[in-house]
Every structure is written in structure tokens, then in C-alpha cells.
Amino acid sequence: MKDRPSKPKFSSPCHCLNIRRASRAVTQFYEKVLEPSGLKVTQYSLLRNLELVESVAMSVLAKTMRIDRTTLNRNLKPLLKAGLVTVKAGEDSRSRQAMLTEAGHDALVNALVLWDRAQASLEDYLGKAELASLEKSLSKLEVLLL
Question: How far apart are the C-alpha atoms of 96 and 7, rounded to whole Å?
Fold first, then answer.
């Protein structure tokens, strides 16, 4: 990130547009860094969440990740197909449990080095204080509809 210009682009008078542009840029940056792992940002995040639990109900996983179940199912499909995640019947016939496979764990370990590199680059680019301030603001924005 050091070779990027440090001068910000012109902002829009629309706060929403500015936040969306920044979100897309950050996502694209992380996708590029993660590319050698074969994982997308959404897939990496899902695997990291599954790493924290042995097995989790789909509804709990969706709530933890703050996404709806439809989005969770869509994001799980390529991971299931690649054998990185498995989904089994839950305690009752209506629930399903997701869990990381050994291949999923290995993919996550390989991607972690790249993720750490992206994290460090972003911290170097913004600086610790500015990044902390940004994260505080983003946390405040997350609760707009709650």
C-alpha cells in the first residue's frame, strides 16, 4: 500500500456514497492480497468464524456474522463444494450445523499469512490512531438500524 498516493480522492456530498466507495476499495484490496489463497474475503471471514466453534447452528452463525441466512447459504456454497466446510443435520429436523473441515482449516492457515499482511498494510497506510478512530466510527454506524 505504500506505493499508493496518500492524497484522498474527492469526496461526494453523499455520506452513503463515500462509505460505499471506501468499503469497495478496502474489499478489493483484501481480495487482491488474499488471491493466492483462492479465498474471497467473505469466504475467509466465514472460515474464521467457523474456526472459533466446533459446530454451530446456521442461524447462530448468520447472527454472529451479522448477515441474513440467505447470504450465509450463498456464501457457503463454494466452500461446501471445495470441501472446506460441511453442514449436517442439527438437533431437530429444521436446523443445520456448519463446521470447518480439515481442508478448511488448512486453507485458513494458509490464508492467515496473507490476511495478516493486508491488516498490517492497512495499519501502515492509515496509522494506528486513525485506524482506531475509523473502527470506532464504523461500530457506531453498524447500530443505525438496531
Answer: 48
Instruction: Give me the helix-helix angle, 41-51 and 58-65, nearest 10°.
Output: 120
Domain boundaries, the chain: 37-131
Topology (CATH) of 37-131:
Arc Repressor Mutant, subunit A (1.10.10)
CA pair distance 42, 27, nearest whole angstrom: 9
Q: Is 71 helix (H, G, I), strand (E, B) or coil?
A: helix
CA angle 54, 59, 63 (to 5 degrees): 95
CA distance 20 to 33: 20
C-alpha cell at 62: 448468520
Rounded to 5 degrees, φ, ψ at 53 are: -130, 155
Cα–Cα distance, 41 to 65 (Å, whole number): 13
> Which of the four pLDDT bands, split at 50, 70 and 90, describes residue 143?
confident
Q: Quick one: pLDDT band at residue 4, thresholds 50, 70, 90?
A: low
Q: What CA–CA distances, in Å, run from 108 to 7, 33, 68, 85, 95?
A: 34, 14, 23, 11, 26
100-104's contacts with Cβ under 8 Å and 24+ in sequence apart are 100/47, 100/50, 100/51, 104/47, 104/50, 104/79
